[in-house]
Design a protein that fits this description.
Elements (H helix, E strand, L loop, with lengths): L15 E3 L6 E5 L4 H13 L1 E7 L5 H12 L3 E6 L2 E7 L11 E2 L4 H12 L4 E5 L2 H4 L4 H9 L3 E5 L3 E7 L8 E3 L5 H11 L5 E6 L6 H8 L4 E5 L5 E6 L8 E3 L4 H13 L4 E8 L6 H8 L3 E10 L2 E9 L7 E2 L11 H10 L1 E6 L12 H11 L3 E4 L4 E6 L8 E2 L5 H11 L6 E3 L12 H8 L3 E3 L1
Parallel strand pairs: 2-15, 3-14, 6-7, 10-11, 18-19, 22-23
Antiparallel strand pairs: 1-23, 1-24, 3-5, 4-5, 7-9, 8-9, 11-13, 12-13, 15-17, 16-17, 19-21, 20-21
Helix pairs in contact: 1-2, 1-3, 1-7, 2-3, 3-5, 3-6, 5-6, 8-10, 8-12, 10-11, 10-12
The structure holds shikimate-3-phosphate.
The site of shikimate-3-phosphate (S3P) has 11 residues, from helix 6.
């Protein structure tokens, strides 16, 4: 795989500090969607022939997926900024990897690739960084074993692990015990190699990028929605996937950071162009509008099956809200930044149904509660939620926040630093490169000062 990015040196922490900003102005384009980028590379690698991708996220997480595919015998080449070509080997065509596949910080990369490898008859070894090695993999291993795949793992189903692909994978019928697009996607990707129908029952709707992209590549996939919100996804196995062109929209989970800064810094008025607004991803926008935010979706359009819009965001007064547990899957990665916004809003915000946040890149419930509290915010950490007492004005700040190898914790507290009374420092900004390369430059372009310390 050839590309121009240099991996961050995780051994050397890069502290960053944000201080109070004047009004943010202007227009910016956030990097490509991380979820869609991983899927474009993997499904492109399983298709026959050439897939051309525009707008690929060139963050460390996605580059690790590209590197893993290269080790598995797929030709992955960078043609220019965000422009990539994948030469797919066809279903079942991956080669036994001669080395350990290292997914760095990426839960999505590791879990989806387990699905891809489940139906390939060779043994692969997989690892990741300290954060990923601490995350639970049993949720993916359990359904994949039902296909006939074998795993040898560390205690607690953790990485590093070995996957021994099934000789003749059998299709499964699986009901997801947690709302997780990663688990759903791993099962569907494994189901590609099995004959007959693989069925996934999803009690709560999670992001559907895998379903949309598999269809785009020619797979037959039926979705039946019931009145209680349950969805049954039926994939017809062993499809003829053919290389396709993909245009990756900007990541709404990255847009959330400049968007939050613009809502909070008085007098701000910005436009974020080309943001993916798949309805399974827009829970943050719904919540912010309930809080009184001025956010307009302009120029709505669709690209390769995904919905896209420009977001115009203006600063204004916000009030606390009660966010229902059912909304969690549509804004799962946005709770750290929502908690920061809630700390500046008027009144109490209650965030419910967040047990999953404890097993993200860090224990985000603890990281948010401890960080906000260090910045002078009154916050209560519940078993699966948070109660934040908004002060109707920015908090004191002036704290040093541990990043915990978590890009979104780093970016959330840097955004808080742009409005807090005193600057906020994060002890390590390097994990930001996993999902949002160019974050500080983009914020600086809008007028948000974040500096290396
Ligand atoms: C993702 C799904 C979510 C999300 C993650 C990306 C995906 O995880 O938190 O950042 O691309 O499928 P879960 O499916 O585990 O909730």
């Amino acid at each position: 795989m050839s590309h121009g990015a240099t991996p961050p040196d995780s051994a050397i922490p890069q502290p960053l500090r944000a201080r109070r900003a004047g009004a943010l102005k202007g227009e910016a384009r956030v990097p490509g969607d991380k979820s869609i980028s991983h899927r474009a590379l993997m499904i492109g690698g399983l298709a026959v022939g050439e897939t051309r991708i525009e707008g690929l996220l060139e963050g460390e997480d996605v580059l690790n997926t590209g590197r893993a595919l290269t080790v598995l015998g797929v030709e992955v080449a960078r043609l220019g900024p965000g422009a990539w070509r994948v030469h797919g080997v066809g279903l079942g065509g991956l080669a036994e990897p001669a080395d350990v596949l290292d997914f760095g910080n990426a839960g999505t990369g590791a879990r989806l690739m387990m699905g891809v490898l489940a139906g390939h008859r060779f043994t692969s070894f997989m690892t990741g960084d300290a954060s990923l090695r601490g995350r639970p993999m049993g949720r993916v291993i359990e359904p994949l074993r039902q296909f006939g795949t074998r795993f040898v793992c560390r205690e607690g189903n953790r990485l590093p692990l070995a996957i021994i692909g099934a000789e003749s994978p059998m299709p499964i019928n699986y009901r997801l015990p947690v709302a997780s697009a990663q688990v759903k996607s791993a099962v569907l990707l494994a189901g590609l190699s099995a004959p007959g129908h693989t069925i996934v029952v999803e009690p709560e709707p999670s992001r559907d990028h895998t379903e949309l992209m598999l269809r785009h590549f020619g797979a037959e996939l039926r979705v039946a929605a019931e009145s209680d919100g349950t969805r049954t996804i039926t994939l017809v196995g062993q499809p003829e996937l053919e290389g396709r062109d993909i245009v990756v929209p900007g990541d709404i989970s990255s847009a959330a950071f400049p968007l939050a800064a613009a809502l909070l810094v008085p007098g701000s008025d910005i436009r974020l162009t080309n943001v993916g607004v798949n309805p399974r991803r827009t829970g943050l926008i719904d919540t912010l509008i309930e809080m009184g935010a001025e956010i307009a979706l302009e120029n709505q359009r669709s690209a390769a099956g995904e919905q896209v819009a420009d977001l115009r965001v203006r600063a204004g007064r916000l009030r606390g809200v009660n966010v229902p547990a059912e909304r969690a899957p549509s804004m799962i990665d946005e709770y750290p930044i929502l908690a920061v916004i809630a700390a500046c809003a008027e009144g109490r915000t209650k965030l419910n149904g967040l047990a999953e946040l404890r097993v993200k890149e860090s224990d985000r419930l603890a990281a948010i509660a401890q960080g906000l509290s260090a910045c002078g915010v009154v916050v209560e950490e519940l078993k699966d939620g948070l109660i934040i007492e908004g002060q109707g004005r920015p908090p004191k700040g002036g704290a040093l926040i541990p990043t915990r190898l978590d890009h979104r914790i780093a970016m959330s507290f840097l955004v808080l630093g742009l409005v807090a009374e005193q600057p906020i420092t994060v002890d390590d900004g390097s994990p930001i490169a996993t999902s949002f390369p160019g974050f500080t430059a983009l914020m600086a372009g809008l007028g948000g000062p974040i500096d290396a310390v």
